[in-house]
Design brief:
single chain, about 525 residues, 26 helices, transport, VPS35L, protein transport
């Protein structure tokens, strides 16, 4: 039979079946002939009107095999033909037959590889993945895999094949997916290789994205709660759940157009609480920091001020607990703290903790971190804080969160508030001057000096002699010993000149006359 073309065999499949069942040659077994016929029909199927008749005739003999090896060999060859050409009901019957033959005397233990190939063919050739999951005999077939590593491989194969264009909200399908995912999750332990850990995390995250209840947000939230309980050992999955719940919160706000009812307000607060409770379970400090900030921003976006405040306080607490600050972590932390600063502009003060309590807390934290003094990241961050305080002193901020009153509305340029800002600026400038002194004469000192000069010149009150003198001294310091970036300083001077002309600021013009290149 193997010498014929598959198309020739397919056209005469019924004749071949009749010849095979009448063949009693001891040199060639019935199993081998049926297997060869199945492989030929996989390549080229018979006419549609003959397909069921052929399967019925063949399966009568396959099912009668008492030798498990002969049976599973034939099933492996014919399963693709069955999955491609027959209904889910027929497939389910065949799966039941496989279970019936493999269960006695734990026969399945000797045929894990064959069963794995069979499951792979079922999954890769089935066009209705959801119906496959809810088949009565599909999960019992998976339960035949008693060896953990083999069961994990099979579940991986199921959840990665034919799984792209698929979403579900069916509870039976969801339970089946959760079962398969739990097998993967529970296989993870301290000895799991990093690549395996990452791969399983990606698979579970992908499954979580596939469960979509549309606008039934409460049901969606219930699923995320269940998933958190089931998949608590993998960072990427917990992070994905926090991200999904934050998306749920934002979508809720969009639907109500920012005007929450009592029910939606309770729901978004519950979402914020979910995130706040879930984040501490994540091992990665970087991920926790990012998610606390994001969750705080989303809570603020939904007018959940208490929940936002709790997230921002958690950020400060985490930063204060950081131990070793490496060069790599300095790059992340400097960028991250700038994001925090930009967020704090629109965060209203908690009346129970006084003026700018979060910003003061952040300043205390970053001051105590063990920064590399030669990189002077702390000095750059202080300059950014001056930028923030300068904007905070304005009558109206450049951006707001809808329906959240920021400090410009709360204080309304109150004198005490402005005095507090000025005092903080004075303290920070003093800190920067100390850093400049500690740096000594170097290129980094020149860079930090010119950055502070810009802030003092453009944001300070140059009518005060002390402020004007400070600006001039900073300019001269930046030029000291030839460490300055002359092109940058020339552009800086030109910018100040244009700014002075645009604002008609006489004090800026006077400063401009005093700053020269030596």
């Amino acid at each position: 039979m193997s010498s014929f073309k598959p198309s020739y065999v397919a056209e005469r499949a019924s004749d071949f079946v009749n010849m095979i069942v009448k063949c009693f040659d001891d040199c060639i077994t019935l199993c081998s002939l049926l297997r060869m016929l199945g492989l030929c029909l996989n390549v080229c199927p018979p006419p549609s009107e003959q397909r069921r008749h052929i399967l019925t005739a063949v399966w009568k003999y396959v099912s009668a095999f008492t030798n498990p090896a002969e049976y599973i060999t034939c099933v492996e060859a014919w399963i693709q033909y069955i999955v491609v050409h027959f209904s889910n009901r027929d497939i389910n019957i065949i799966l039941g037959d496989i279970i019936e033959h493999m269960s006695p005397n734990r026969n399945f233990e000797n045929f894990y590889n064959d069963l794995k190939i069979i499951v792979g063919k079922i999954v890769s050739n089935n066009q209705d993945f959801e119906m496959l999951l809810v088949m009565e005999n599909f999960l019992p077939l998976i339960d035949l895999f008693q060896q953990e590593y083999m069961k994990v491989e099979v579940c991986k194969n199921i959840l990665t094949n034919n799984f792209t264009c698929f979403t579900t909200n069916d509870p039976v399908t969801t339970n089946a997916l959760m079962y398969l995912c739990t097998v993967l999750h529970d296989s993870v332990n301290a000895l799991t290789p990093e690549d395996e850990y990452r791969q399983i995390g990606e698979i579970l995250c992908n499954v979580i994205r596939k469960v979509d209840y549309g606008r039934d947000f409460e049901q969606q939230m219930n699923f995320y709660v269940e998933a958190r309980g089931a998949f608590s050992n993998i960072d990427t999955v917990l992070a994905e759940l926090v991200q999904r719940v934050n998306c749920l919160t934002v979508n809720t706000r969009h639907i109500v157009k920012g005007i929450h009812t009592r029910k939606t307000a309770d729901f978004v607060r519950a979402c914020a609480a979910y995130c706040f409770i879930t984040i501490p379970s994540i091992v990665s400090e970087k991920t926790r920091l990012e998610l606390y900030l994001l969750s705080g921003q989303v809570a603020l976006f939904n007018q959940c001020l208490g929940q936002a405040d709790a997230c921002f306080k958690a950020v400060l607490s985490m930063l204060s607990d950081l131990q070793d600050v490496t060069t790599k972590s300095e790059i992340f932390l400097s960028s991250y703290i700038r994001q925090v600063l930009s967020t704090l502009l629109v965060v209203p003060d908690n009346p129970e903790r006084g003026v700018l309590s979060l910003l003061k807390g952040l300043l205390n934290v970053i001051r105590d971190l063990d920064w590399n003094k030669q990189n002077c990241v702390l000095g750059s961050l202080y300059v950014n804080v001056i930028d923030l305080l300068s904007v905070m002193s304005q009558e109206e901020y450049s951006y707001h969160v809808d329906r959240v009153e920021s400090n410009d509305s709360l204080y309304g340029s109150d004198t005490k508030f402005l005095v507090e800002i000025n005092n903080m600026c004075s303290i920070i400038i003093g800190e920067i001057l100390t850093l400049l002194k500690d740096l000594g004469i170097c290129r980094r000192q020149s860079q930090l000096a010119i950055e502070l000069f810009l802030r003092v010149a453009l944001r300070g009150d140059l009518s005060m002699k002390s402020v004007s003198a400070l600006a001039l001294n900073l300019w001269q310091l930046s030029l000291k010993n030839g460490n300055a970036d002359v092109k940058y300083m020339a552009k800086t001077k030109e910018y100040i000149r244009k700014r002075g002309m645009a604002t008609n600021d006489i004090h800026l013009h006077q400063l401009l006359d005093k700053i020269i290149f030596q």
